[in-house]
Every structure is written in structure tokens, then in C-alpha cells.
Write a structure and sequence with these properties.
globular, Rossmann fold, 2 domains
Length: 295
């Protein structure tokens, strides 16, 4: 595996690969790699000739009161894991390389980014859109791979690619989970042993909501109430949001129609650790299915 730290060097490498007719898969990460990241790398190698992974903890997507400085980092461990999972080229730029003195540009996507994560973290998606656009311009991959755990972010990246005409196939891969369903996240390391034992309630909440939708419940407020009630069974949980929305647009109708795809979105604080998760479920198209009535 070759480690590259300069933008010009990775651009030259990618241009050389394209001239040779090689397809490029790209996995952008913030490091502290876990099985979710590694699954993206393995998928990338399946769909393309060359695999490039980047590690960059992007300062512009963190608010001043968030965990940029304390975000978990272990570069040597990450290098080893990336190499073991088919990464041929690791792009490892510095902050000054990505945001040199005099940098003034950012990208803002409106609409669905202004709700859910966009409420709690109002500058977050601007930072994400900006860094992803920069990385896309640097690497110019044929495929870019992202995990479903950051669901709203995946919609943003698809919108970014469409609106700015990036000729890139965006691939969204399933969330990878621990034994009790907790979505893998670099921030899980923040959880104490006691709180980690209670974190499985998030996945349990999603499973229950999937069940009631598949049984016919199509009222948004009832689905949302079900999410809230189960999460509140754990006193240490503080709900940021627990909501359902149209999976493609994040529009929140009063009633979902037969065949609609619903995304169930959860963000909570468990102690001081903020955790997010989601699941997608379809409303049954069989009109004979009776609505589920929440008690």
C-alpha cells in the first residue's frame, strides 16, 4: 500500500490509472477504522480495478463545541487495517493541505439538509458537502462508497453528485452492526461499559417500528410515538430526534401510502455520547392489511 499526503501526487496517480484504463473506487473516511469502513473497502475492490481510501478528520464539519480535538485517531492501526482490506493507495492529507491559507469556499445544499441532523448540527452538512466535493475533484473516482448509517449524509452526497455533475457512481452499503444491533461507529469507543450494555435499545426500537409498519401502521405520528416510547425506557437516553420520513425526500406526511419507503431516523445522547442510526421499511401495498393501532 502506498501512502500519499499531497494533493498533486494523488491527482497524478489517479490520472495515470485512468490513462491505463483502470477504474477507481474511493472510500473517504475520518479514520479510526472499524468493520463498517472495511466492508466499504472490500466492496470497492469488487467493483473497480484500483481502491483508494482517504483518512481526514475534517474540521469544517465539527461545531466549536463538538469533538474534533478528541475524535479518536490511530493512524498506524488504520494503515494496517486499510492495507489488509485491499486499499492500494491511502490518501492522508494534512489540514493545511486541504484548507490552505486563504481558503474561502464552501458548499451549501438546501432542502432536506435543514432538518434532523441539520437542526442539531447546522454547519455540519456544509462541511461534509465541501470536503466531499474537494475529494471528488482530487481523486475523480468512478465509484464512491458510503455507509447507510449516516443516512441523511448519503442523500446529501447523491444530491451533490447530481447537482454538480460529478460523473461518479455513488454506492450506499448496509450498516454494519455489533452483536446486539448497535451500529458500528468510531464514537462507540466513548461509551462506558455500563452505557454500552444499554445501547442495544436503539436497534430494538428500530426493529419494533419496522414490525408495526409491516403490519400496516401508516400514521407518521403513531410511528414516531412508538420510537420515542421505547427509547425512553432507558433513563440514560436523551432523545435528539426519533422520527420517520419519506426515504427518498425526507418529507414527513401525516400518512404514508401503500408502497411508500419510510426511513426511521434516530439520534440520541447516551450519557455524553451522541449516537445515530436508521432503518428503511416499506409500507405494505396490500390494502387488506389493517393499520396497527399504537397503545
Amino acid at each position: 500500500m502506498e501512502v500519499i499526503t499531497k494533493i498533486k501526487d494523488i491527482q497524478n496517480l489517479c490520472e495515470s490509472l485512468r490513462i491505463k484504463g483502470k477504474s477507481i473506487a474511493f472510500v473517504p473516511t475520518m479514520g479510526y477504522l472499524h468493520e463498517g469502513h472495511l466492508s466499504l473497502m472490500r466492496k470497492g475492490k469488487e467493483v473497480a480495478d484500483a481502491l483508494i481510501t482517504s483518512i481526514f478528520v475534517n474540521p469544517t464539519q465539527f461545531a466549536p463545541n463538538e469533538d474534533f480535538e478528541s475524535y479518536p485517531r490511530d493512524i498506524e492501526r488504520d494503515k494496517s487495517l486499510a492495507e489488509q482490506n485491499h486499499t492500494e493507495y491511502l490518501f492522508l492529507p494534512s489540514n493545511n493541505e486541504m484548507y490552505p491559507k486563504g481558503y474561502l469556499t464552501s458548499i451549501q445544499i438546501e432542502g432536506f439538509t435543514l432538518k434532523f441532523e441539520g437542526v442539531t448540527r447546522p454547519e455540519h452538512f456544509k462541511g461534509v458537502a465541501t470536503i466531499v466535493a474537494k475529494l471528488f475533484n482530487i481523486v475523480k473516482p468512478h465509484f464512491a462508497l458510503f455507509g447507510q448509517k449516516d443516512y441523511q449524509q448519503t442523500l446529501l452526497i447523491k444530491q451533490l453528485a447530481t447537482d454538480l455533475n460529478f460523473d461518479i457512481n455513488i454506492i450506499t452499503c448496509p450498516t454494519i452492526r455489533e452483536h446486539d444491533g448497535l451500529a458500528l461507529s468510531s464514537r462507540n469507543v466513548y461509551l462506558t461499559k455500563e452505557l454500552r450494555q444499554k445501547a442495544g435499545v436503539i436497534f430494538h426500537t428500530l426493529e419494533n417500528a419496522i414490525k408495526i409498519v409491516e403490519e400496516g401502521e401508516n400514521r407518521r405520528k403513531v410511528i414516531n410515538a412508538n420510537l420515542h416510547n421505547i427509547l425512553r425506557s432507558v433513563p440514560e437516553i436523551k432523545i435528539d430526534y426519533a422520527s420517520s420520513a419519506n426515504a427518498d425526500t425526507l418529507v414527513e406526511p401525516d400518512l404514508y401510502l401503500p408502497g411508500d419507503r419510510i426511513v426511521l431516523l434516530i439520534a440520541v445522547f447516551l450519557g455524553k455520547t451522541r449516537l445515530i442510526d436508521n432503518a428503511v421499511v416499506s409500507v405494505p401495498s396490500d390494502p387488506k392489511v389493517k393499520p396497527y393501532y399504537f397503545v
